[in-house]
Amino acid sequence: MAKGKDVRVTVILECTSCVRNGVNGVSRGISRYITQKNRHKTPNRLELRKFCPHCYKYTIHGEIKK
Fold it and tell me: Does this entry carry the keyword Membrane (predicted)?
């Protein structure tokens, strides 16, 4: 049986270079990925290198709040 909170949670990864450069000033045009992480093994924010179709290169995608 599950105890309280789930161990694996769904997180959203967003391109950090698009956010810094301010593509369109709104969330449209920012590359986002959805993945899961283990809350107990990785308590900090997740950062992965993913392909951004708006930057046309591999960039760091960081975890954002829902």
Answer: no
Other Cβ atoms less than 10 A from the Cβ of 37: the count is 19
**Can you give the residue range of the structural domain that contains 50?**
6-62
pLDDT digits (tens, 9 = 90+) for 14-55: 998 886 665 555 545 578 999 999 999 999 999 999 999 988
Strand pairing report for 8-15 and 32-38: antiparallel
Alpha carbons 10 and 38: distance in angstroms, whole number? 9
pTM of the predicted model as reported, rounded to 2 decimal places: 0.75
Q: Are 31 and 18 in contact (CB under 8 A)?
A: yes
Largest CA distance in the chain: 46
User: Domain tally for the chain?
Assistant: 1
The reply to whether 1 falls in a domain is no
